[in-house]
Amino acid sequence: xxxxxxxxxxxxxxxxxxxxxxxxxxxxxxxxxxxxxxxxxxxxxxxxxxxxxxxxxxxxxxxxxxxxxxxxxxxxxxxxxxxxxxxxxxxxxxxxxxxxxxxxxxxxxxxxxxxxxxxxxxxxxxxxxxxxxxxxxxxxxxxxxxxxxxxxxxxxxxxxxxxxxxxxxxxxxxxxxxxxxxxxxxxxxxxxxxxxxxxxxxxxxxxxxxxxxxxxxxxxxxxxxxxxxxxxxxxxxxxxxxxxxxxxxxxxxxxxxxxxxxxxxx
Length: 266
Known about the structure:
alpha/beta, 11 helices, 44% helix
């Protein structure tokens, strides 16, 4: 079994972040088939005795799919309105799919202020513990409909890292639309090789530009490396997998699929 698979197998408390690009199809609307497949795989983890907290993007895409307008508007009010509409659709889908396996879900919407305030942070942790003790799956997202720059977390990679450290998770899994971290941009270089194990996320970060478009290439990689640095500092490893691949979590555990493991320092 590879490092990625072993980390998933050994972890008892797992935060899984699901990116918008994973949930969305070619038109930008949420793919319910892919979403249901991910839910099925998460249920497999739960049946194996693991506790799972989900950090899910996709409210905006669900809003576009529901109302079928506004998506071309750049105005922040329309974007926030789409998220308000889409968050309901997103949770309805999770409720429907998890109910197929006898699970209830609970919604938690957060801002950076919630993590910064010790009293609020304690209540978040207690709520997570209570939901999980009652076999309810917490689904977390940023409260996009009310967030302004002063209280925005900014991206769900960061939100998932904060959630993992707050909850003292054993592992953070980020499901993205890429196979992992490469030694060069795979969109440009056909000989790019997947880096399966990273022992120092900080050292890797120095080789990636802030827009994520340097030798490692993929946009958004900087956020994932920053998330790895955050959780690794607390002894929590991070696994990056391609969530668009069918059965990616199960295959990773079986050792038949690869990703990138960012190892903790502790």
